[in-house]
Each structure stands twice: as structure tokens, then as C-alpha cells.
Amino acid sequence: MTADTAAALLPAARRPHQDGRAAGGAADRWRGALRRSAPVLPAVAVVALVAVPAAPAGDGSAGTGSVADAASALLVAYCLVRLARERARPLTRTAALVLGLPVLGVTVAALTSGDPPAALPGVARYLQIFVLVPAALLLLIRDRRDFRLVAGAVVALALVEGSIGVTQYLTGTGASYMGENIRAVGTFGPTDVMGMATVVAYGLVICVGYALAPVRGPGPRRRTVALVCAGLLLVPLALSFSRGAWIATAVAVLLQLVISGPRRAATVVLAAGALGIVLVGGLGIGSQMISERLSSITRVTEAPDQSVADRYTMWAAATDMWRERPVTGVGLKGFPAHRDSHASLGLSAASDTAGAGLGFQRQPLLSPHNMYLLVLSEQGLLGIMALAGSWAALLVLALRRLPRHGRGGSGCAFVVAGLLVWQLVDFGYADIGGPSTVLMAVMFGLAAWWALSPDPGRPGPGRGRETGSGAAAA
């Protein structure tokens, strides 16, 4: 064999070893990424399991628990075990005060309830959504990379649910709406028609937040992906026919645009208006049904649809309950028991549901579909001040970080501001309940990390060794 032949064969002989090293390097990178993301992987699992359909209750109402709820309990347990192992400092005093406020109202309402044992499930639900899961995420998220991982899981869930919803509309396999099975509800079914709308709206607000973030590093590509995803999510949101989700999304996105710059806000609003005129007015895409749905919001005294009439009737009933017991309310889980004695005869007491794989059912109206009035009626002034005070503190603390991290900093600022405003506006038209509720707790957890962490994006007490270089800018 000549020297030239040996030289020609030598690279070929080395190639398998090089390929092996490359494969080993890729495997090491994957293992490293999994190891680094381990603290927030339980939160990602909770988000993914929200898509698992919950079995409906026998009475036709939505079930009281889901696989995602069980996963959220494991998330809290995982956080406690991790804190015990690392002997890390728990919440700061500010975080403990903000997240602990709801405990006061819930505890007093349960103790003063006419049936304390029946109120215990309500105590567990409120603590899960507004205290335990948000606190666990506050302690587990270490930097903006972890934040993006959880937020990205929400966007992925929104895209999956949205694609299912659009398919339901196109194939006539959705929930019943105006006599046709065309309402997009995703995997949540007709007993939780707000579920898919909530998930899709969360994903859309997150995408808009990152699209508005300052561009640097991989920013241009991330912004393009975020804009495309936001555009895709607009379709299932419209096909959900959820008036509350439409209003909350419009307000949240408008706020995000304003804090990113008035000029950009004006440009985007004009472009969105022109696009809406073309799609709805020019092409007639869903124009009749969407216009009818929008106009029904204001029809309270002149020929309102039954859902609007029932909602305003239950709002009046909740207000009467509060007047009866203004300080502590009628007790947790007390609204259904006191509803008929405070509601007018015009209340239908149940709504008709059908489609999306289920037959006709009568779903009892067990809440006023307004979170503020639900808390006011069941927990009184003490409960609403504690719970709304916690939400207001989160929003104020998050917005206070906008000048420092907003226009010149992370997209987390835009995302959190949008999510909090969306949720607080939507609470005027919805309350807790249904399989998607646990995702609300995840959103509050993301907001809590941004608002209450000592310095978002940098290692917290007891976590510096794991964070490493994870504090890269978004």
C-alpha cells in the first residue's frame, strides 16, 4: 500500500469514531439540557396534562378533578422535597405576604360556613390555584430560560388545542352553538366551553409578549415564530365564540402594545382593524355568528339571549347574598345552596350542552360566572379584599419592573403584564372551575416569579450552583 493510498483511507477509518464522538456529544447535550431543566419539568408536565379530557360528573356538571390537578399536587410536593434537600431559603417576606393573603379570606369563610365539611373542597381549590402552585413555581423557576420553557409549553398546548378546535368547526364536530355543532372547544368538551378559549388566549398573549420584546441575539427568529403562532391562535379564539375571552384578550394585547411604545400600538391597532374588516366584512369569515355574539353582550333589556339573561340574574343573586352577610359571605361552596332564594324567576338554573362527542345534557349553573362576585358572595368583604389585594399586588409589582426590564429588557415583562391583565379582565366574565383552572395557577406562578423574585433572571438563594449561565437575556 502506497503512502497516498494510506492517506486516502485514513479519514474513512477515522469517520466512525468521529461520528461516535458527535453522537456522544449530542447525547451529552440532551442529558445536560434535561438535567438543567429538571426543576421546571414537573410544571411542563402539568401544562401538558391539561389537554387530557376530564370525565364529566354524573350530574352533567363538569368534573371536580383532573389528571392535571393531580400533577399539580405532585408539583407542590416536588418543590417541598427539593427545598428540604437544598435547605434553600423559602419565600421572601413580600412574597409570603402577597401569596398568603388569600389564605385569610378562605379560612374565615370556611370556618363561618353553615356546613364547614362541605366547604373543605373549596378551601383546597382556592389554596391550589392562588397559593400553592404559584408559590411552587416561584421557587422552582430560576431564570428566564426556565420561564421560557414553561411559557413555551403553554403555547404548544394552545396550538394543539386550537388545531383541534378549528377541526371541530370545519367538520361540525364541536360543541353545539345556535343549533350547529361548530363551537371550538378542543379536548375540554361542551361542559367547559371556556377551556379551549382560555388556553388559546394564554398562548396568544404569551406570543404577543415575546413578539414585542426588544430584538437581540436570536431575537429576530424568536419574534417571527411568536408572530406566526399569534396569528394562528387568533383563528381558534374567534371560533370559540367566547365573549369574555375576546374582551380580555383585546385589553391585554392593547396593554402590551402601549407599554412597548405608543407608535407601535397605533400601527398594530390600525393594521388589525384593517385585517378584521377584510376577513369578516370582505370575505365574510364567520361574520354573522361573530357579529351576533358581540352584539349580544349589550342586549340586557331588549331581547337578550338566555345565557346573557342568566348571567346577569346570577350576578344580582350574588350581590343579594353579599348584602345578607357582608363581612364573611355565605361560606365557601355556598352559592348553589343560596342561589334560588336570591335569584329571580327568570333564571333557567341550567344551560343546555351537547356536541363534541357528548349527547344532550343540562348543566347546572352553580356559580355567577364572575370571580369577583363569587368571592364577594361566598367570602364577603374580607375574602374579596384579601384575594383581590393579592392580585393587585402582583400586578403592581410586575408593572414596577417594566421601566427596568421592559423596553430595554426581557420579554417576560410583556408576557406577565399581559397575562395578569387578561386574567383580571376575564374574571369579570368567568370564575374558577373546570379542567383548565389548573393552568390559571401556572399563569399566576409565572407572574409571581417575575413580580416577587429578588432579581428575575439571576440565581436565587440556594440555587446559584444550578443556574450557571442560565440568566441569559430573553
Task: Describe what this molecule looks like in 3D.
By secondary structure, this protein is mainly alpha-helical. It has 2 domains: 89-261 and 296-463, no CATH class; 263-295. The chain has 18 helices and 4 strands. It has helices spanning 3-37, 41-49, 67-86, 93-111, 116-140, 144-171, 193-211, 219-239, 243-260, 262-282, 287-295, 306-324, 335-342, 371-400, 402-405, 411-426, 437-452, 464-467, and strands at 175-177, 180-183, 350-355, 358-364. The chain has a two-stranded antiparallel sheet with strand order 1-2. It has a two-stranded antiparallel sheet with strand order 3-4. A hairpin with a 2-residue loop joins strand 3 and strand 4 (358-364). Helix 6 packs across helix 7 (193-211). The radius of gyration is 25 Å and the shape is globular. The model is unreliable at 58-63, 405-409 and 459-474 (pLDDT under 50).
Distance between the termini: 57 Å
The number of distinct helices, counting runs of at least 4 residues, comes to 18
Which geometry do the CA atoms define? globular
Helix- and strand-based class? Answer: mainly alpha
Average pLDDT level: 79
Taken together, the total number of domains comes to 2
Give Rg in angstroms: 25 Å
- Strand arrangement across the biggest beta sheet: 1-2
Largest sheet: 2 strands, antiparallel
Tally of DSSP β-strands: 4
Strand content bin? under 5%
Proportion in helices: 55-70%
Question: Helices and strands, in N-to-C order?
Answer: HHHHHHEEHHHHHHHEEHHHHH
Uncertain ranges: 58-63, 405-409, 459-474
